[in-house]
């Protein structure tokens, strides 16, 4: 190995081994001592792969129309991995061309490729004290990945062990200066990052405003104008070479002269899209209406300072200042600017807010520069021109059979993952020299977790409660405390990061702030072993850091964990609560099975319910889609089962302020920030959005994004499992093989409709009880082919109704069919029709089915918002002798029509990979069908 190889293998050459006692590097550093790796999960001489049962399966993903999107036969997976995990991993992370010997066919190969590569890098870089330590590290890492206890971000799975110098980071921050060369260079850098599937963020405040002059006397364009160019590039350079949109963040400081234009730019464009939609243009996410407007390829955020927020509270003036001179440009009433931001958010979900003073108060490298920007999802916040590789821990895998949280195993997992991520830093490639230099000099990492919501429910704790927030705070505190402790141990063996010496004081100050924040956790609400482990980790992290420094400037973030959450079979992602108590499980041969979330029985057992009552409660959820009204369930326990969205048969959900409070509970123990969008109902007012922003600032979160349901006019989200096998009988449906004709005089209803300019009429004749018995359709002149086909079709449907075929079966069969003409309608309940048949049968649903069935086929109705009071906390089972056994998972038969609509997701986009409708995930979207994400992870 030559000197160049050693530099690459260790990250930043001799600077990596600098002794903190000699910050100027005046003495030649000692060679790395390496680390001893104790085994916790594995045994020497026994491969983790040999300890699990394996089976061969088919990986299959079908599109919305039933077409095969991906298929690979005879793939080898552990028996305990789900079919969803199988589909996602085989389609996303197996390397090599399909149908060739080079194609990976087993999880053994994939995990072995990654773990073996990282261990090899570590051994060559001197990270291990001996070869047995390197072997122990590889085995421990393999165990964590194999047992779904942790996962790296997607670029590691894509590239590690495939390329010599792989790009392993998902998150980037880029700088820009007030020169044309810099502005155009940013466009190039962003384009290359989008090409390889990563996301990027930039603060455009250094660009002079449109109210200032150029050196030659001309008028400057301003950052908002350049955003149009950046937006266009992001729109045509699809992320990762796929059809999904690029992940991009654009930030502007609140004192910038163009702040008002920035605040309103996206909302103004949204209104243009509405006008185009009203004129008949396709309003889907990638349709003609939205493709014709600007600023659709980025998340926009305002950087606000403590001074600005205080000016809002005190109703004071706020000055914008010229970029070039710093002189006052314009004066606003601070509350007017805040109202402008809230109004824009109310219209289109942008801009979000980033609280600059809070962010920089927790900055470990403040002596180098301030933090100006973030990645697209706002969880990675650090110096400009830097990158972060992410990994996440599956918290539910550390819940023991007796219901306690295994803090010791959790700590050991953190140790292995931080070391793995640290090794990755020095062996990755980076898109620019500046990013490579800063990555090597500061070595920021982004370890986080998933399944917090499931963990809290399994523990019998409401997500929106003091107990839930205390437990989340303790779990997060232990995550970051142990991560910094591990970083200090690596620094002892390998040297602190190159930028540590100049930043020793601010970094130790931040470590102390984290440690002091432990006092804010009510220790009476958390298990003693968990809170004591957190205290011990932070005490040791500070003590060891003061002596040896730290190997990494940052260690944790809370990312949205999109695709990798499917890989780990997580019920919940990142810091999120559960979405619903009913889930749909993919089957190996295709199709779905409805199941009650397996966390529910664990929670009921924790709360003290006997097995027979648990079975009846779970059966009730299976039949009704909600736990409200379940037998035996005490009302005080209802908050434990509250989810992000109201179930179709229930009224309860977590109030949006519950999400903000949970972010505030975790934020003091995260190096970076938290990717999470606070969803608000349609009825949310501008004043409520203002209040949410103010509360987020007061509670100390670093960034807050708000999305009001339905503010974008795209197609409604409907996650379906198929068509109903059995529907409720209606007159005369119980009479088999007997035609029940309508009376000569019968009531009828006629409806005129228009689909993308094509007009037609539906007439429905009804029985005396109001149920439909015949339909007539008119779409063209008499005698035309279309007219004849519509007459024949209407006759066949009428006969089916008169012979007792349930209307719901017909609606489930024919709704959502796709063919032309399709497009926007004049019916607010069905704004978009995928075809004439889709419109006809969804209109019939809107007139003749009940509310739950209407919701299943995507009829848009006003959702009333129930008042949310502070939840009553559950009485936990206190009998220490009562052990919590394995989950009692009650599953139903394959019910073809059992589906659910996620409220507050009506305008989610279609998945670019398979066409299924997506759901929100942090600041981005994820697909429940194929596991794809629209973000950078």
Class of secondary structure makeup: alpha/beta
Q: In percent, how helical is the residue content?
A: 25-40%
Quaternary state of the chains: single chain
Distance between the termini: 34 Å
Q: Output the radius of gyration.
A: 29 Å
Main sheet, how many strands, which sense, barrel?
10 strands, mixed
Shape: globular
> What's the mean pLDDT score?
85
Residue stretches low in confidence (pLDDT < 50, at least 5 long) are 1-28, 715-736, 862-904
* Fraction in beta strands: 5-15%
Number of helical segments with 4 or more residues: 27
Q: How many β-strand runs? A: 25
Please describe what this structure looks like.
The chain is of the alpha/beta class and 937 residues long. It has 27 helices and 25 strands. The strands form eight sheets. Strands 3, 4, 5, 6, 7, 10, 13, 14, 17 and 18 form a ten-stranded mixed beta sheet that branches. Among the domains are: 3-168 and 375-548, no CATH class; 171-373, Alpha-Beta Barrel (Anaerobic Ribonucleotide-triphosphate Reductase Large Chain), CATH 3.20.70.20; 748-856, no CATH class. Helix 22 runs parallel beside helix 23 (686-699). The model is unreliable at 1-28, 715-736 and 862-904 (pLDDT under 50). Residues 169-707 form the Ribonucleotide reductase large subunit C-terminal domain. Residues 746-845 form the TSCPD domain. It holds the Pfam family Ribonuc_red_lgC. InterPro entries: RdRp_reductase_class-2, RNR_2_N, RNR_lg_C, RNR_NrdJ/NrdZ, TSCPD_dom.
Short note summarizing the structure:
By secondary structure, this protein is of the alpha/beta class. Among the domains are: 3-168 and 375-548, no CATH class; 171-373, Alpha-Beta Barrel (Anaerobic Ribonucleotide-triphosphate Reductase Large Chain), CATH 3.20.70; 748-856, no CATH class.
């Amino acid at each position: 190995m030559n000197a160049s190889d050693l530099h690459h293998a260790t990250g930043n050459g001799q600077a990596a081994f600098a002794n903190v006692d000699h910050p100027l590097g005046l003495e030649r550093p000692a060679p790395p001592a390496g680390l001893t790796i104790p085994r916790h999960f594995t045994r020497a001489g026994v491969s983790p792969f040999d300890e699990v049962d394996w089976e061969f399966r088919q990986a299959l993903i079908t599109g919305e129309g039933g077409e095969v999107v991906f298929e690979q036969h005879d793939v080898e997976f552990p028996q305990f991995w789900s079919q969803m995990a199988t589909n996602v991993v085989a389609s996303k992370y197996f390397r090599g061309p399909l149908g060739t010997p080079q194609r990976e066919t087993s999880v053994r190969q994939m995990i072995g490729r990654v773990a073996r590569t990282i261990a090899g890098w570590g051994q060559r870089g001197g990270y291990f004290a001996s070869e047995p330590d390197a072997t122990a590290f590889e085995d421990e890492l393999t165990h964590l990945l194999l047992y779904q206890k942790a996962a790296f971000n997607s670029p590691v799975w894509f590239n590690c062990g495939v390329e010599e110098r792989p790009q392993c980071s998902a998150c980037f921050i880029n700088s820009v200066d007030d020169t044309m060369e810099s502005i155009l260079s940013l466009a190039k850098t962003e384009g290359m990052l989008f090409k390889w599937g990563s996301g990027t963020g930039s603060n455009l405040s250094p660009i002079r405003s449109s109210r200032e002059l150029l050196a030659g006397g001309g008028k400057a364009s301003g950052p908002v104008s350049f955003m149009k160019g950046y937006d266009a590039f992001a729109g045509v350079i699809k992320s990762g070479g796929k059809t999904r949109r690029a992940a991009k963040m654009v930030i502007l400081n609140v004192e910038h002269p163009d702040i008002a234009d920035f605040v309103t730019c996206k909302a103004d464009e949204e209104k243009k899209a509405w006008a185009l939609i009203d004129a008949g243009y396709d309003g889907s996410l990638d349709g003609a209406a939205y493709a014709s407007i600007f600023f659709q390829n980025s998340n926009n955020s305002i950087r606000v300072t403590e001074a600005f927020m205080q000016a809002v509270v005190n109703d004071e003036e706020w000055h914008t200042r010229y970029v070039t001179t710093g002189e006052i440009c314009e004066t606003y009433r601070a509350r007017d600017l805040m109202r402008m931001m809230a109004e824009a958010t109310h219209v289109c979900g942008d801009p979000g807010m980033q609280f600059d003073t809070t962010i920089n108060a927790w900055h470990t490298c403040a002596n180098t520069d301030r933090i100006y920007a973030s990645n697209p999802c706002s969880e990675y916040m650090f110096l400009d021109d830097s990158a972060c590789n992410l990994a996440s821990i599956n918290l539910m895998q550390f819940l023991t059979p007796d219901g306690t949280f295994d803090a010791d195993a959790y700590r050991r997992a953190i140790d292995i993952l931080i070391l793995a991520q640290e090794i990755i830093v020095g062996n990755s490639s980076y898109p620019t020299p500046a990013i490579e230099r800063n990555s090597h000099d500061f070595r920021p990492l982004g370890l986080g977790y998933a399944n917090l919501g499931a963990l809290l429910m399994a523990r019998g704790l409401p997500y929106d409660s003091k107990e839930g927030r205390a437990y989340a705070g303790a779990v997060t505190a232990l995550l970051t405390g142990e991560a910094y402790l591990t970083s200090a141990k690596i620094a002892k063996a390998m040297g602190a990061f190159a930028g540590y010496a100049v930043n020793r004081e601010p970094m130790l100050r931040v470590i102390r702030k984290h440690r002091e924040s432990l006092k804010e956790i009510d220790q009476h609400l958390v298990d003693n072993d968990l809170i004591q482990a957190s205290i011990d980790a932070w005490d040791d992290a500070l003590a060891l850091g003061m002596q040896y420094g730290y190997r990494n400037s940052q260690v944790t973030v809370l990312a949205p964990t999109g695709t990798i959450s499917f890989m780990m079979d997580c019920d919940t992602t990142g810091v999120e609560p559960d979405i619903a108590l009913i889930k749909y499980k993919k089957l190996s041969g295709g199709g779905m099975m409805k199941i009650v979330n397996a966390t529910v029985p664990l929670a009921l057992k924790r709360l003290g319910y006997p097995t027979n009552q648990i079975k009846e409660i779970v059966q009730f959820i299976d039949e009704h889609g909600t736990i409200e009204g379940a037998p035996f369930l005490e009302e005080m326990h209802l908050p434990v089962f509250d989810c992000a969205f109201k179930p179709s048969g229930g009224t309860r959900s977590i109030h949006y302020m519950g999400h903000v409070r949970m972010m505030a509970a975790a934020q003091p123990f995260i190096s970076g920030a938290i990717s999470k969008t606070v969803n608000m109902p349609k009825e949310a007012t501008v004043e409520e959005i203002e209040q949410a922003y103010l509360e987020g600032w007061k509670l100390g979160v670093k960034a807050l994004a708000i999305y009001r349901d339905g503010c974008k006019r795209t197609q409604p989200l409907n996650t379906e499992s198929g068509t109903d096998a059995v529907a409720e009988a209606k007159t005369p449906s119980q009479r088999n093989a007997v035609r029940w004709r309508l009376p000569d005089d019968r009531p009828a209803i006629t409806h005129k409709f228009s689909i993308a300019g094509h007009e037609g009429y539906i007439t429905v004749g009804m029985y005396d009880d109001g149920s439909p018995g015949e339909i007539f359709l008119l779409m063209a002149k008499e005698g035309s082919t279309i007219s004849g086909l519509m007459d024949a079709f209407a006759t066949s449907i009428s006969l089916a109704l008169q012979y007792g075929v349930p209307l719901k079966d017909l609606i489930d069969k024919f709704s959502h069919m796709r063919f032309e003409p399709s497009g926007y309608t004049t019916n607010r309940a069905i704004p978009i029709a995928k075809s004439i048949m889709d419109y006809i049968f969804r209109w019939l649903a809107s007139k003749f089915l009940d509310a739950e069935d209407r919701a299943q086929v995507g009829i848009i109705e006003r959702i009333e918002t129930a008042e949310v009071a502070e939840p009553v906390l559950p009485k936990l089972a206190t009998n220490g002798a009562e052990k919590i056994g394995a989950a009692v998972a009650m599953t139903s038969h394959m019910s073809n029509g059992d589906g659910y609509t996620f409220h507050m997701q009506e305008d989610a986009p279609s998945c670019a990979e398979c066409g299924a409708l997506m759901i929100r995930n942090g600041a981005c979207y994820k697909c429940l069908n194929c596991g794809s994400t629209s973000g950078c992870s």
